[in-house]
Amino acid sequence: MKTQWQQAWLITKTDLGRSKLGVLASIIINVFFALSVYSFWNGVQLKAGVEPLNHFLLDYVGIIAVTNLGFIFSARHLKYMENDSYRNYLRKLRTMPIDIRTVVSTRFFQTGLYTFINGISYFSILYILMLAYDKQAVSLLTYIVFIAVMLCISLFMHTIYIGFEWTQSGRGYFFAILGIVLFYFLFSILLYLSGTNLTLSIMFLAEHYTLMTLIASVLGLGILGVLGYRTAYRLLKRLDLA
């Protein structure tokens, strides 16, 4: 008898096989995000162009990019407003001969796999650009720690996204995501007005407090994963999909 993670992998693999063009589109978009974020990063480093705008966009676009790593394009993601595809997919999973834990495991397995696929394209392109054009590029170890911190932010937000997927209608999900994007916008403005840049601050911690930041990030990923899984399980257990 297959374990819940084996079943989750089979469901995810089947889902991924139906979205090959979506995977390619997602990779291309993440490459575009990496190019955009580096242009703002470079503008801040060189103090070139409109520096306040570079500071703001480095955080704003960077947060959007990182918190969308766990998604790939598919018919389900493109038609959620039209036919409530997220909740319909959840209803489909609930009718299969699998338990609730397997459904939750499937969603987190998908998030992890998609983050891995998109993260390779996004973070590798970004670092290649840093190595190619920065006068003093960050070390590989520093960059790995930086990635670990960003993945904590990504996992935290994806847990929230999953909750909206399962509890909101297509239209409700749209407005929830719109609200989150607006929050990112306002948060990035407040950071700039306070004289703080989130991306630069994380890179500073990764460079000057490498071991401590790495340990905190690994612990954070573990804690967020466990809490996110348990929260999603409790939510799904009491969710009425009728």
Structure description:
- The protein is mainly alpha-helical.
- It has 11 helices and no strands.
- The protein is globular and about 55 Å long.
* Percent of residues in helices: over 70%
Mean pLDDT, rounded to whole units?
89
Most strands sheet: none
Radius of gyration: 19 Å
In short:
This protein is mainly alpha-helical and 242 residues long. It contains 11 helices and no strands. The model has no long low-confidence stretch (mean pLDDT 89).
What topology does this entry show?
Layout: H1 4-17, H2 20-46, H3 51-66, H4 75-78, H5 80-83, H6 85-95, H7 100-133, H8 140-167, H9 170-193, H10 198-208, H11 210-238
Helix pairs in contact: 1-7, 2-3, 2-7, 3-9, 7-8, 7-11, 8-9, 8-10, 8-11, 10-11
Question: Which terms summarize this structure?
Answer:
mainly alpha; 11 helices; 0% strand; globular; 242 residues
